[in-house]
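Morning F.,

Quick status update on the modeling queue. The single chain you submitted on Monday has been processed. Sequence for confirmation:
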Amino acid sequence: MISITNPILRGFNPDPSIVRVGTDYYIATSTFEWYPGVQIHHSRDLANWQLVARPLCRPTQLDMRGNPDSCGVWAPDLSYADGRFHLTYTDVKRYGRTTRSDQSEVSLRDFHNYWISCDSIDGEWSDPVHLNSSGFDPALFHDDDGRSWLLNMLWDHRPGNKRFAGIVIQQMCLRTGRLLGERHNIFAGSPLGFTEGPHIYKRHGWYHILVAEGGTERNHAVVMARSQSLFGPYELHPDGPVLTARSQPNGSLMRAGHGDLVETAEGDPWMVYLCGRPLPASDRCILGRETAIQPMRWGDDGWLRTIDGSSRPIAYIAGEGGTRSMRRPVDDREDFDSPSLPQAFQWLRTPYPEQIFSLTERPGHLRLFGRESVGSQFTQALVARRQAEWRFTVETKIDFNPANFQQSAGLIHYYNSTKFHYLHISTDDAGKAMIQILSVVPDEARPCITSPAIPINRGPVCLRLAVDHETMHFSYRMADEDDWHDVPGDLDASMLSDEATLPHLPNFTGTFVGMACQDMAGTGAVADFDYFHYVEHES
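Structure tokens below.
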């Protein structure tokens, strides 16, 4: 029997899907507008995980240029059947809502659902087959009669109707991806509403449907229903949500929902799910949406429950003989000596990374080619890694020679185009090099804030960011200096969270820290980064 001690899977993105193949466990998670698409981690003990694949890595598979913030790849579903891994996912192209003169809402969105497959988890995955665009969160259910079925939530854009219009199912050919027959709306959801993230499991002759409900904020929940027929009708769980933090507003794990189940070889059920860990001072989740895992149990009545029957997420898993994560405090220094980008890093939207960076044009450096403005939804040169720690420092050395004020490069703490803090090097009107912080925050009164410009000498410059929960500050020094100089500015790290936002904008991604370069004159200025050193500190 597997037993672990820590439910938080550090550094994971949200919307987990889990599958077991023999003694191997795999979790796929969302990547939104970050490229490559989908992250897959591997474990053999449910405690220690390693990133093994980002399968959407070719222009023929994924092109997110123009996708809005927090759109792109949503809620991948990973399964295994007929000797192959199968992955379904949504590429969200539009996230919009319009209020008409009569105050009724039209919510026009574009969700394109795809399927890819591969015979090995870290192999070359197939080009995608378009399945449908009727809603998001596609998932496959492989029945024991050999048939496979596609599930997804149904989106209803019409004013006055329920936008989350139920879970639809349609048979799918697992060889071609062709959908067969008609779709059936099999589950309208519970009174919590916002029914999404469907999965189906078959156990002892019953079909169990698991969905996310309540929205992905503090009312989030995992809801289950069952039927003896695949098409229903489905009976709701008699206890209400299977897992939720709705009833514990001050808990350390909040927003619990969007779950998926796996059974060990011994038949013990475990659930992976989305969660958030708010800081007491700000009530904001600066680590974004995370993934957690905990054991479950099947009751004598055939219903799934948490171990204690409370339906609450647990911050610590008690028990004897637990497997502890062998995770050590992060101390990652990348010197960019390889021709490939280190695994921890991603970039935004474009499937053509050669247009925004190179690791070979100046060996031992990451060269960024100045492209569009920071926050562009098309082609911007920004390479970063996800923040997964409460307290950390990042240091990098940049060699950048800007010719005018339209060229800039530096160190960035980035959530999306409406939320970032950016320490960058540029020039003044006279061509004198300067260093300055640009902060873009979700504040209707002052959305853009700049610190006073500090003149600096030309030549390589070391930049540093220190984050301590809600607080953060930047510093710099010339490469031939020993002492760091603080850059004035009162910076709030909690602004880089889901909870800090303008109305009606999606906020799903979590915060990244990395390197950026812009040339808004379109002349292709370059910035060379010699190293990137990310160090976690004890909380």
